[in-house]
Amino acid sequence: MNLFTIRQLATRSALLLTLGLAVGSCEKAVNVEPSNSVSSDTGFTTKEDAAAGLLGAYDAVQSSDYAGLAFPTISDLISGDISFRGTFTTTYGVIAQNLAAPDNIQIGNTWNAIYVGINRANYLIQQSELINDPAFAKQSTIAQARALRAFHYMNLLALWGGTPQGYGYPNGLGVPLRLTPTTAIGTETEAIPRATEAAVAEAIRADLDYAIANLAVGSGTRITKSAALALRARFELRMRQYADALKFAQQVPVVANFSSATIGAGSAATDVLWQLAFNNTDQSQYAFYWYPSPGGRDEFDPGTAISAAHPTGDRRLAINVLTSSTTAKYTQTANRDDPFNAVRYAEVVLTIAEAAAQTGDIATATTNLNIIRSRAGLANTTATTAAGLVTDILLQRRLEFAYEGMYWYDLRRTNTVQIARPTYQELYRNLFPLPLREVQLTNGLVITQNPGY
What we know:
Layout: H1 6-18, H2 47-61, H3 70-79, E1 82-84, H4 89-96, H5 105-128, H6 138-160, E2 173-176, E3 194-196, H7 197-214, H8 225-238, H9 242-249, E4 272-276, H10 286-290, E5 300-302, H11 306-309, H12 317-320, E6 340-344, H13 345-358, H14 362-375, H15 386-400, H16 407-413, H17 417-420, H18 436-440
Family: Belongs to the SusD family.
Main location: membrane
Signal peptide: 1-28
């Protein structure tokens, strides 16, 4: 009889779950050969296998510990755009106070959920290369998987990477960079050191470039060329590469009737490029946490300052701050099928505006900013300088993407955390702590903690 250590058992269980190969305890397993690894010989062999793997790769993003609730919520709690009023005081509550510690369970769960997504994407990429069926849309499948992997690493860097001043600075901290799947316990599951921010950024750009080259334009619940271009623009803006951000954003096809369309929330948003769809069996957790009934947790409220941030007449106020205890972006407490809009065309327009302002094109910046202001029921901007335009653009981003997890990363990339949140005096907390277990498993010798924690 083989004896396993607790760590080996935990690693094996996590491995099976990341590949979607765990079997529920209530199911009967007939003639199942015990194995500690998943052999590539019995991996994906048909286009149907790859199609199922692609569904699994998207499903990882929908986890309640990821974009199904936690990742955007963590971001908006620490930025102050969501206020905490619930019972999870040791997880969400301390994040809202900017007092998160390495042993915070939610931070650990979110880190793990993102790496689950990375491993599924890596496995799909590897296995898709082995399928030679002419009917298999190999390039499109791999392109979507690589775009998802880029999205995951963008989010890891956003929370845990860079420097206290922002992103793209010398000596920026990265995260462990895994570009091949973990399919067997052993060398593949050994801890690897954190890559530099620059190395992770290079991998992100390579993945998105592949996706852009191999996908068609469009929108929906799958990543298209349009969404990949928008993600590349998002990343370059975050890295302060404004000319590149402008170049990629301007390649995104214009959404028809965008400038004249009525502003909608959730499923009513008309500018979605990539949307995570939920249903009664694959549920979103947003309304469950925002509302008290039926059966909701009633954990969150709009932040204390976000209502006053809306200019007079702003149509988004009714969406962002409906009452003192509700928000109209997520409303489906019964079916819990609110979608999450991962990429919207409004972001593209504001990226064009900000990148143009930062590169001296005041006319383009003003035109695109006014498109967003007009949709929101506001008069044209009065700003005439690049600095004034950027200030207005950042406000529009905050109001346009409330509760979509964007504001904290705008504060970080513009090095304005301490200005917007003056009580946040410990600069090291601009980066989140790595989960304690990631550091302890190697005694801090392989994976090092972010400084200050």
